[in-house]
Design a protein that fits this description.
The chain is mainly beta and 274 residues long. The chain is 3% helix and 42% strand. The strands form eight sheets. The chain has a four-stranded antiparallel sheet, with no helix packed on it. A four-stranded antiparallel sheet has the order 9-14-11-12, with no helix packed on it. A four-stranded antiparallel sheet has the order 17-22-19-20, with no helix packed on it.
Length: 274
């Protein structure tokens, strides 16, 4: 039995060869727990024996499972009532004990999908105001990463997966932009941790993300710091794009998007807010 692996957004149904998986949230009478109910379309294999539901706090890495739940196509589980995001997937098992690949993955949190191309990607990842380790946030695609670079306070820092102990880039702060050099294409699902919309910019070049969860025009995004901005650059689909405040009509960078990284050149140290 074979089931193609794919990752999709929450609360939507997609064809995953044999069955669909969606997740619904139900009210719970337990103060310290949430009840999550998952449902999926029936697998049509003639020798289907049972399903197994998997869940955990890491994308694609499940440390809990339901065991054999028979041929029902709905399952409820209680998880702690906290801010932790949980990921879920289902497998089908035939009468010979052969288990399918995981279904599409769904989660209890708001998840963004970041797409990486082979070679260099200029991106930013949503993080909380507390720093998050590189291994934690990029772990699911680490086997595809050649190196990760950040430009912090005028100096380059690098994370090398082959030599992590010799890397000086070990964690990411909210608002940090990074260069990621990839062996091949990949997709990363990350929790949208939100942001307080504050990014500190120093005089000169800054490699950062956009301080909004929405796509904004460049003029709208930088409105609070427009008097300090000399230029904004992005690298998308292997091409550089620029916004020049003095020549907006000749600029080809028109929007700033969550998940992308940007080079912002400012003439004075300033605080970038929404």
């Amino acid at each position: 039995m074979h089931l193609e692996k794919k990752v999709f957004s929450l609360n939507q149904k997609y064809n995953i060869l044999c069955f669909f998986l969606v997740v619904l949230f139900l009210s719970s009478s337990f103060v310290s727990a949430r009840e999550v109910t998952l449902s999926w379309d029936e697998n049509n294999e003639p020798d289907l024996d049972h399903y197994i539901v998997y869940w955990g706090i890491e994308q694609g890495n499940y440390d809990e499972n339901s065991g054999n739940i028979g041929l029902v196509t709905e399952f409820s589980v209680e998880i702690p009532d906290d801010d932790q995001v949980y990921f879920f997937a289902v497998t089908a098992v035939d009468e010979a004990g052969l288990e399918s690949d995981f279904s599409n993955e769904v989660s209890t949190g708001v998840v963004k999908l970041l797409s990486f191309e082979s070679s260099w990607n200029l991106i930013s990842v949503p993080t909380s105001q507390d720093a998050v380790s590189i291994e934690e946030i990029l772990g699911p695609i680490m086997d595809d990463i050649i190196s990760v670079w950040a430009y912090v306070e005028g100096s380059w820092q690098v994370y090398d997966p082959e030599n992590p102990s010799f890397s000086d880039l070990v964690e990411l702060d909210s608002g940090t932009g990074i260069w990621v050099n990839m062996k091949g294409g990949a997709t990363l699902a990350v929790q949208d941790a939100g942001s307080d919309g504050i990014i500190f910019l120093t005089n000169g070049w800054n490699l950062v993300g956009v301080n909004s969860s929405d796509v904004l025009s460049v003029t709208e995004a930088i409105s609070q710091i427009s008097e300090n901005v000399l230029s904004v650059w992005s690298y998308e689909d292997g091409q550089w794009k620029i916004y020049d405040p003095l020549n907006p009509g000749f600029s080809d960078l028109s929007a700033m998007k969550p998940g992308f990284g940007y080079w912002i050149n400012v003439k004075n140290t300033c605080i970038w807010t929404r």
